[in-house]
Amino acid sequence: MKHSLIVFAAVLFTAQAHGADPLPSWNATGPKQAIVQFVEKVTRKGSPQFVPEAERIATFDNDGTLWAEQPLYFQLFFAIDRVKAGAAAHPEWKTQEPFASVLKGDMQGMAASGEKGIAQLIMATHAGMTSDEFAKIVSDWVGTAKHPKSGKPFTSMVYQPMLELLTYLRANGFKTYIVSGGGIEFMRPWTQKVYGIPPEQVIGSSGGLKYELRGGKPVLVKLPELVHMDDKEGKPIGIQRHIGRRPIAAFGNSDGDLQMLEWTCSGEGARLCLFVHHTDAGREWAYDRQSHIGKLDKGLDAAKANGWSVVSMKDDWKAIYPK
Amino acid sequence: MKHSLIVFAAVLFTAQAHGADPLPSWNATGPKQAIVQFVEKVTRKGSPQFVPEAERIATFDNDGTLWAEQPLYFQLFFAIDRVKAGAAAHPEWKTQEPFASVLKGDMQGMAASGEKGIAQLIMATHAGMTSDEFAKIVSDWVGTAKHPKSGKPFTSMVYQPMLELLTYLRANGFKTYIVSGGGIEFMRPWTQKVYGIPPEQVIGSSGGLKYELRGGKPVLVKLPELVHMDDKEGKPIGIQRHIGRRPIAAFGNSDGDLQMLEWTCSGEGARLCLFVHHTDAGREWAYDRQSHIGKLDKGLDAAKANGWSVVSMKDDWKAIYPK
After folding, report:
1. Residue B20 host element (H or E)
2. C-alpha dist (Å) from residue A217 to A84, A211, B262
3. Which residue of chain B comes nearest to A199, CA vs CA?
4. Distance separating alpha carbons of residues A288 and A294, to the nearest angstrom
5. Low-confidence residues of chain B, pLDDT below 70?
6. ipTM, two decimals
């Protein structure tokens, strides 16, 4: 009898712990408390800060917030692989920058081409095919490519605590969106599977599209032009265009997310704004104010001034990647 | 006893009829049959044409498909009212076309300014304020303005059979979207209330936005420039940008919807494409191949060639507007 009581107590404890802690990979530090308190405030009936379900919009940056972004944005690894795959059909790339550097594996040379060179790489590898063809190319790449440092598939380098956060918010009636500087059509083929976020809840930088009939069948052809840059001021603009209402929670990791957090947390009522701060050189990477990728400088100051949450990956997260 | 049995039978009949007929304002003619058969095909488990809920996307044009569009697009009546409201602050409008004609109530003169003039009207009345301010202006107008012919609020001139269709599709797991040539920010303030369609499921023509801080508070300012024309080829492009997947059902009423229907019905599996044909001069308006507004010419031919449904408002709809 005594034994079975102990077993029962243990089961009960486990069940309670399971039910009570939707964020098991988060330490019980400030950011976790801020998240849980915010969710309780906006979902508890009778709460003065209750928010109807339809208005529970949460937006997440992707690179550096939901998955890693070092030593290069993962979409750039994709572009590099596409340049290699397309080299035979483009003999001119052997001598033309930034393609020549990419083909030689000279990352310094590629970087030397600057933003213009990066844009050329993206245009050359993200346009000229139909949107359906591009989705297949991305799906194939995501299913096979490996990160040069970790050797893991890129989609395994997503942050376990953020996956728990997405699930927790959705379980509380939130609609979760990605709002990323990355390409909208680069993300959509895999966000449902990896994050549980359907294509219509993915906002990103987008290129031109042309509708045409090919052999009597309509297709959408991707054009080598940028029609929306979903970064900095572009994030609130992308949110307004796609969602048409202001989020009540926003999550980012860099100055590119600052305006999204400003826009979100300057609305009335309960709001949650949070930066993921990359402080863990051991388990991930450590970078902030001086970084070329994912620079977090003004954002850190704004977080302090506005009382936004800042997650220290080293101190606030028990795990980084899923097991 | 006999009496109560009759009452019971009557109640039962009513309940059954209610349960069995989700489209009571539709006559039992071809279009209704096509709709019901399509919905059963894609929702019945085990059906070879079953479509998972997440992929049940249905897109609806607005002007002439969900609400009336004669004698002018309702958004133009809004623009005209805004020109009148702004005349005192714009003395130059007294002599400058198309504003001068609008202020004199000379619709012929306004029409003579052509597409360029209409664009000028829209830009002058839809830009220069913040998106929040514009939403309030639209809400106020929609709550008070009356149609010049019917004397009814514009939002009462929605089609009862289409309201039933929206509800029926949503009850069957569809996500219903508006995909309209009308302004995205002109529709969003009222589509939830009128159609049950939330702002994030409204796609339309959109103008530029500028993010700026005013007195330390971020705002989105509407710019006098068009960044997406959501008409003809622009509809599949708008769908791809906002939704990122192809609809399985599409509803329109004019050649401006032709590409949306082509795009939708050229996908694999069960598809439903339907044109609303304005054939009812008594209860609404009758127009098609020659009309300046809502011209349906190539669309009628395409519907015939592709076996798409065509609703004759006169023959297929029991009611036009809600009671």
Report:
1. helix B2-20
2. 30, 10, 9
3. B244
4. 7
5. 1-19
6. 0.93
